[in-house]
Amino acid sequence: MNETLMLKLSQYRQLINLDENFSLTPVGFTEKEECALVNSLLTKTAGIEASGYFPKSFLYPRDRLYARLISRIPFSLCEEVLKEIDRLFVHEKSKMKIMKSSEIQKVFKHHDFSTKVALWQGDICSLAVDAIVNAANERMLGCFHPFHRCIDNVIHAASGPRLRDDCSRIVNLQGEFETIGCAKITRAYHLPSQFILHTVGPIYENPSRHSSYSNLLSECYKSCLNLADQLSAISSIAFPCISTGLFGFPNEAAAQIALNSVMDWLQEHPQRFSLIVFNVFLDKDFKIYQNEIDRRNNNVSKWPKPAN
Q1: pLDDT of 72-122, one tens digit each?
Q2: Among residues 225, 213, 216, 260, which one has the least CA distance to residue 1?
Q3: Among 49, 167, 175, 184, which is least packed by CB within 10 angstroms?
Q4: From residue 237, how far is each of 51, 124, 196 by CA, in Å?
Q5: Rounded to the nearest 5°, which phi and psi values hold at 120?
Q6: What's the CATH number of domain 9-23+99-302, 3.10.105.10, 2.130.10.10, 3.90.800.10, 3.40.220.10?
Q7: Across residues 198-209, what is the average pLDDT?
Q8: Taking phi first (over 0 means left), then psi (-120 to 50 degrees means alpha), and beta for anything else, what does residue 123 get?
Q9: Predicted pLDDT at 38
């Protein structure tokens, strides 16, 4: 991993106003007012989609607006329109069911990290933790395909269009795509979390390179933790199953790497972070993590002790 060309946090922190709080008070809409706002935004956002990505078959106005925002070119919206979109997103967020970090059950027993690590199944965009991790692609702009179920798309859709602009600013300043195993951070905008850590996992194309892929995947977790460690505002983090799914990493191996990488990092930084959540969405991943956690709970002696 060539880190010499990768931007440090200090180089882009002010560019994306990372330390500026983004918190808007929701204004209640009637159903009629909400529909009128959506239709107005459809008119004002006409023509912003990237060529080749936008399907024309969506029936409902909100779906058409969603598809247009997901397939939009960076910096294609003026501040006035962005503020109107913010009004809509804040209203929709006020109706979401939020999962508080205090309600997530810890999963490890009988060792020194038992109060810090949790497993939770559900939508990462509903988690009220300080930072969530996005399994991004190297362009760092999200997925341009409406209603694609990759986590990159889900996070960008829920966060709102300002996120893509921030990511584009970072990549433009860096002058090249993001390197596998590195991480960047942005604000989370309309998510319950405050920040998003973006990391690019390895694409598992050749099983003979398993060791190399494993090292890169481990770097994803460690890079996110190292970056989050630089912000005192971050005490809780949620990780998805990085590199599984479309990226092809075997789920069982990915879970073991995720657990090992995070626990090794916590061993070296025992005073840092109050909660690390392993977030899964699929039933099979929940079972994989649960089995691995059960195995480790039954082999307590194998866990490292935190450094004094």
Answers
A1: 999 999 999 999 999 999 999 999 999 998 888 777 665 556 678 999 999
A2: 216
A3: 175
A4: 35, 11, 9
A5: -145, 135
A6: 3.40.220.10
A7: 95
A8: beta
A9: 96
